[in-house]
Design goal:
The protein is an alpha/beta fold and 367 residues long. 42% of the residues lie in helices and 18% in strands. It binds 5'-O-[(R)-(carboxyoxy)(hydroxy)phosphoryl]adenosine and zinc ion. 5'-O-[(R)-(carboxyoxy)(hydroxy)phosphoryl]adenosine binds next to helix 5 and helix 6.
Length: 367
């Protein structure tokens, strides 16, 4: 019987320092042996967003301890590992370097390969770890740095069908929260207040709908919220709740309508009659959006998979798993240490056949 692949994965491309040990069996099933995540909420709280230099320093301070915890929790020795993997981009370059150099040091000391993983590939393949999903499927990645539809056709075969041309969806939530005077990161606060607000009080645009495009644009919507808020300032608690509800309703409409278009496109181009839509990224936590996506998928005879939230947001398990999939696909040589094609990269689009847009793999973007 073939031995399981055992991989340590590191993630440090934004404000999470994470390490995990994942096993992949010969039948392609995966098991998470440990998954340690430390979020830098406190470090950035005073600044209303992630400060790259502070993030990098915070990763340096804790990454050794996070790795030690992940190894201890998994109950494995470095000598047991088949490889060590790290996010090599896209992301905040200082943080990416911290994780990648840590992985390289571990690899050199223990004589194992290091695998440079595209962070987006980690998100894209997570549902194969959590749900044993077969290729092909459709991915909607909605995080603080990315909003894209990707057709995941096979390992290494990713077609970006649409992306944001300005702000990412999580970023739009965060900026809207900021202008409503809510704490950072704002997404969960907007959702909480939206629950008690009137979604029909403010007429907000549904950007990029109606053209059949799978691209998103959220910056105009954020400006519309600002204008509405300025118009009625000073804001009462009810005003804030109504603005939050109106904003959330607008983005929910856009995301659900585009998911339906994306599924139609996916069905036509792959001949898969009952496709699966996987949602990843922090915004997947939003219950209104998840409910609308359930409806949109059901209306298209499709299945929706929302992996557990701690695997939807940034984590080391998805990086370890992407590396395991790479090794299983016989593609390890593409990224191992010494290969100059795998440096730390601030930008690294998953699909390099499409033209980059501002919102995709953009410098300093959270992924
Ligand atoms: O994937 P993630 O944890 O980090 C990266 O962007 O890499 O996503 C964080 C984003 C933030 O913009 C946050 O405000 C948003 O996800 N978010 C939410 C919710 N929870 C987190 N947005 C809307 N509703 C939520 N419940
Ligand atoms: Zn991410």
């Amino acid at each position: 019987m073939a031995k399981d692949l055992l991989i340590l994965g590191l993630e440090s491309s934004c404000d999470e320092t994470a390490a995990a040990v994942v096993a992949r069996a010969a039948d392609s099933s995966g098991r998470i042996l440990s998954n340690v995540i430390r979020t830098q909420f406190d470090e950035h709280a005073a600044y209303g967003g992630v400060v790259p230099e502070i993030a990098a320093r915070a990763h340096v301070e804790v990454i050794d301890g996070i790795v030690a915890s992940a190894m201890a929790e998994a109950g494995v020795d470095f000598a047991d590992l088949d490889a060590v993997a790290a996010t090599a981009g896209p992301g905040l370059i200082g943080g990416v370097i911290v994780g990648l150099m840590t992985a390289k040091a571990i690899a050199l000391v223990h004589g194992i390969p290091v695998v440079a993983v595209n962070h987006l590939e980690g998100h894209a393949l997570t549902a194969r770890l959590t749900d044993g999903l077969d290729f092909p499927y459709l991915l909607l990645l909605v995080s603080g740095g990315h909003s894209q539809f990707v057709a995941v056709k096979g390992f290494g075969d990713y077609e970006r069908l649409g992306t944001t041309i300005d702000d990412a969806l999580g970023e739009a939530f965060d900026k809207t929260a900021k202008l409503l005077g809510l704490p950072s990161p704002g997404g969960p606060h907007v959702e909480r207040l939206a629950a008690s607000g009137r979604a029909d009080r403010f007429e907000l645009p549904r950007p990029m709908l109606g053209k059949g495009s799978l691209d998103f644009s959220f910056s105009g919507l954020k400006t519309a919220v600002r204008h509405a808020a300025e118009h009625i300032a000073p804001l009462t608690e009810t005003d804030v709740a109504d603005l939050a509800a109106s904003f959330q309703a607008a983005v929910t409409d856009v995301v659900a309508a585009k998911a339906a278009i994306a599924l139609d496109h996916f069905k036509q181009t792959t001949s898969v009659l009952s496709p699966t839509l996987v949602v990843a990224g922090g915004v997947a936590a939003n219950k209104a959006i998840a409910a609308a996506l359930h409806q949109a998928t059901a209306s298209r005879g499709a299945r929706l998979i929302v992996p557990p939230l701690n695997l939807c947001t940034d984590n080391g398990a998805m990086i370890a798993w992407a590396a395991a999939e790479r090794i299983a696909a016989g593609r390890l040589a593409d990224t191992t240490i010494g290969d100059r094609s795998a440096p730390a990269r601030a930008r690294w689009p998953l699909d390099d056949r499409v033209a980059p847009k501002i919102g995709s793999g953009r410098l300093g973007a959270k992924a």
